[in-house]
């Protein structure tokens, strides 16, 4: 960072911008007089909505980088921006060593919700989702009575595609995204079609690891930007997502791996990591592990997972 203006890189979706404005509000409150400038960057995940999300890395030659963060990190590395704002769940378990996960904001609700047409037949739901994790969980949660069809796009696009397709009953979204975009909690209309929102219990339908958290990333060699950004870090959230990301790293998981889970802080200061992992089409393993140190909790749960019969 070379001036009094913090240049912030972000995707251009409505949700990404809402999260960026939330981050800017926190940064300005913690750093009086700070000015922020938003730089919108188009990513591979934004550009390639014609194929399933888990195929985008191969199609765009982005390697094992997050498809929604690689282009933003290129701008960060080039010094075009000083800080990047991401949905944490879009970030791989290990960052490029040039960058630092400097801060996370207080976590929003982590659960997934089912947004469904009010006249949908709940005995045979057809659910639009582009997530491998959600597709597997749908089969388990509804005991095979629901099926999924693919969909890509931002929140508004997925809602519109859902109501426009007479064959589709519902879609799955993160509660955090709906909250940040100002959607009513229980019911609203999409292009004149009434829909209702059904919360899914995190124990049975776990979120993506990192879901609900907003991450701020800086260059490791930019001490000035890091000093300002670190002031907004929420320590309890950071401990939980550190545990989740350590597990993702050990699992070497990307968006093609059907895994979900979350860490929670207990009253004694310990962490409990809950994970659901699918191997093969239907074999589901549910495990929990408790401890004080995030990395050790993740490692202990990973050891138990790899010893499970497949």
Please characterize this protein's 3D structure.
The protein starts with a strand and ends with a helix. The chain has about 300 residues and is an alpha/beta fold. The protein has three domains: about 5-105 and about 215-235, Periplasmic binding protein-like II (D-Maltodextrin-Binding Protein, domain 2); about 110-200, D-Maltodextrin-Binding Protein, domain 2; about 235-310, Porphobilinogen deaminase, C-terminal domain (Double Stranded RNA Binding Domain). It has helices spanning about 15-30, 45, 55-60, 70-75, 130-140, 155-165, 175-180, 225-230, 235-250, 295-305, and strands at about 5-10, 35-40, 85, 100-105, 110-115, 125-130, 145-150, 170-175, 185-190, 195-200, 215-220, 260-265, 270-280, 285-290. Helices cover about 30% and strands about 25% of the residues. It is built from ten helices and 14 strands.
Fourth-level CATH superfamily of the largest domain: Periplasmic binding protein-like II
**SSE order in H/E notation?**
EHEHHHEEEEHEHEHEEEHHEEEH
Distance between the termini: 49 Å
Secondary structure tally, helices? 10
| Highest-level CATH class of the largest domain | Alpha Beta
What's the Cα radius of gyration?
19 Å
Largest sheet strand order: 7-6-8-5-10-9
Return the average pLDDT rounded to an integer. 91
- Bin the helical content: 25-40%
CATH fold type of the largest domain: D-Maltodextrin-Binding Protein, domain 2
Assembly status: single chain
Instruction: Quickly give the CATH architecture of the largest domain.
Output: 3-Layer(aba) Sandwich
Count the beta strands: 14
The largest β sheet comes out as: 6 strands, mixed
Structural class by sheet pairing and helices: alpha/beta
Shape: globular
Summed up, the domain count is 3
How much beta, percentage-wise? 25-35%
Low-confidence stretches: 53-60
């Amino acid at each position: 960072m070379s001036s009094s203006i913090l240049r912030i890189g972000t995707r251009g979706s409505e949700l990404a911008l809402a999260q960026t404005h939330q981050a800017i509000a926190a940064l300005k409150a913690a750093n009086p007089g700070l000015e922020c400038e938003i730089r919108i960057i188009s990513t591979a995940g934004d550009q390639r909505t014609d194929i399933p999300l888990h195929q985008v890395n191969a199609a765009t030659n982005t390697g094992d980088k997050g498809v929604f963060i690689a282009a933003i990190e290129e701008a960060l590395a080039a010094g075009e921006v000083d800080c990047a704002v991401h949905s944490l769940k879009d970030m791989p378990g290990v960052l490029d060593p040039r960058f630092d996960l400097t801060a996370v904001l207080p976590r929003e609700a982590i659960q997934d919700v089912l947004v469904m047409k009010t006249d949908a037949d709940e005995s045979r739901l057809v659910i639009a989702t582009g997530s491998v994790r959600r597709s597997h969980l749908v089969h388990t949660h509804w005991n095979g009575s629901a099926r999924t069809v693919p969909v890509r796009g931002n929140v508004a696009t997925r809602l519109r595609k859902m109501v426009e397709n007479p064959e589709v009953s519902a879609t799955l979204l993160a509660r955090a995204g709906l909250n940040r975009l100002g959607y009513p909690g229980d019911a609203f209309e999409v292009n004149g079609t009434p829909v209702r929102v059904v919360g899914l219990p995190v124990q049975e339908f776990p979120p993506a690891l990192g879901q609900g958290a907003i991450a701020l990333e800086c260059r490791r060699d930019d001490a000035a930007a890091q000093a300002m950004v670190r002031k907004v870090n929420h320590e309890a959230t950071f401990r939980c997502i550190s545990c989740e990301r350590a597990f993702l790293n050990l699992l070497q998981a990307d968006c093609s791996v059907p895994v979900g889970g979350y860490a929670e802080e207990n009253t004694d200061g310990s962490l409990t990591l809950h994970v659901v992992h699918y191997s093969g089409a239907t074999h589901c393993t549910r495990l929990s592990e408790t401890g004080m140190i995030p990395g050790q909790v993740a490692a202990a749960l990973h050891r138990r997972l790899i010893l499970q019969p497949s």
